[in-house]
Amino acid sequence: MSDSSLPVDPTDTLADQRAGAGIVVLSASMQLLHMNRQASELSKQINAAEQGGGSLKSAHGVLPTALTELCGEIIKALHVRTEAKDWEQFEIKRVAGNPEQPILLRGFGLPDRGGVQYARLVVTLEELARRQQLNTDQAKEKFQLTNREQSVIEHLAKGWTNKEIANALQITEQTVKEHIKHIMRKTNSTTRTGILVHIFNS
Length: 202
Hints:
alpha+beta
């Protein structure tokens, strides 16, 4: 059944044109309370990437693993961050989906005085490429990266393996690993994804 008979809210069409962030709200028991259209579309993209590029249809209505794992982290944090003010400067980030079109997930909790079981989890989904191009020049300055490290990050953002990066830069895989280790130290990251989250947000 088509819902074209419903009146069109001008703010909806504006949001669609802007292709703003997807928003997902869940209860602490992981019950889905709200998911806007953008979140639904981006979730399908992440699901397809998680299933090795499978069809978007097979993923319908299923929350992506990256999103459920992020929610698990929010629930853990809610046991410690029990006041709303604890979440003002804090969010849990993760990059998911196809490396060619990465999607940034940002999660935070809305604590409830009644306890964690009454809290809400909010996750926003945003296409990184649409948000801003990978700004490696800015990141280079901020994290004191060398030219070679900057090149490694540009290839990491494409989802390339160490071997592919080594071939492109005509260096050994071991050298690539060393560069990544240095970049992790400089960006205070522990994973390749973590590096990208820091770089995209720089």
